[in-house]
Amino acid sequence: MFKTSLEEILYRLGQLGYCVDKSTPYELHGRFRQTGSLDEFKFVNQKHYDAFAGVLMEYIQEQMQLPEYGSLQKVMIPEDSAGPKCDIYMSDSFRRGF
Questions:
Q1: Would you say the pTM of this structure is higher than 0.90?
Q2: Residue 56's closest CA among 73, 41, 46?
Q3: Structural domain boundaries, residue 86
Q4: Together in a domain, 81 and 45
């Protein structure tokens, strides 16, 4: 249904009643605004907040991997463990050891 994961993220953001507003000249990355009114985030309830925060996190992670925002690579650490993992983002040169 979606060509990219970013399209899916933006769709889910729209389902929560928000969009990315990049119309302000000084906004390099855009701001999440309420669809229609362009008001900023308003707390509705904990469930809505958790869903919004999850989409926000995914959006930022996708942006970090784009060339215009650094082309960072997602790395799961620890890399050699079967246990719990955490994702971090690093540049190619850092990953190669400078």
A1: no
A2: 41
A3: 72-98
A4: no
